[in-house]
Amino acid sequence: MSHEPVIRPFFDESTSTVTYLVSDPATGKAAVIDSVLDYDPRAGKVLVHTADAVLAAAAADGLDIEWILETHAHADHLSAASYLRSRTGAKVGTGEHIREVQAMFVPMFNLDDVSGDGSEFDGLFRDGELVRIGELDIEVMYTPGHTPACVSYRAGDDVFVGDTLFMPDYGTARTDFPGGSAKMLYHSIQRLLQLPDDTRLYMCHDYKAPGREHFAWQTTVKEERDHNVHMHRGMSEAEFIAMRGQRDATLATPVLLLPAIQANIRAGNLPRAESNGVRYFKIPLTLDAELTRSGMP
User: Fold this and answer.
1) Which sign does the torsion angle of CA 260, 262, 267, 270 carry?
2) DSSP code of 271?
3) Domains of the chain
4) What is the dihedral of CA 23, 256, 39, 280, to 10 degrees?
5) pLDDT (tens digit, 9 = 90+) per residue, 38-75?
6) 126-151 pLDDT, tens per residue?
7) Are 229 and 169 in contact (CB under 8 A)?
8) How many CB atoms lie under 10 A from the CB of residue 218?
């Protein structure tokens, strides 16, 4: 059996995202889970200081990064997976259902440089598949609902849940993105909550619930089962679906949704440069009916 991992979090406050450097103490092999590429949407500027902080920490500890793992195609930050792969030679992996997400968004953005078969990723994982990091086994758990491709990664008593759950005082993931399903999310959460009580759960995000002054991203199955504000003990599927639908209707579109999806379904690769040497994200426009009636060219 594999060892317990060494886990080091890196919190990016601008996107409220936690990246995890997970290593096997016996061999020094490591994985990076849910990396962040710094992106300023106002200037269209891309930087790598958050990813470089992870690389610097790995180098300082003598770690060899073998895998860059994504829990899903994020809508709130750009993945640094491609950059980290170029710097380390590591493989990039995610759940096999990323193909479904590509199928939804390729026509939406009219992309001609996305495979549709997930081949931008080096590994497309099935539910129950084991990813080996040195002597550390990481089990892939299919936990859809937030998106149809979400997975969680279980290493011993530690589970990295992506956006499926938040801290108990903040609740659960939204399900109003294309392919999202409150019904599927309910069952994914139930699967996680059936793990042993003392299993540690690591969030991908923390937005600080009202009244809490500090950021937090680690909890346990028992704490979630007893105190999650959206998924209390005994809550039925129908009750959860109704709650999630009402809440989702009040949520704003994530600021980085459009660029993030375009990068993340490409495994963190940016759009290819056009003839002028510049890369561009696309922004689909929804026209007001008056503009359509006016015959605006």
Assistant:
1) negative
2) P
3) 8-269+283-289 (3.60.15.10)
4) 120
5) 999 999 999 999 999 999 999 999 999 999 999 999 99
6) 999 999 999 999 999 999 999 999 99
7) yes
8) 15
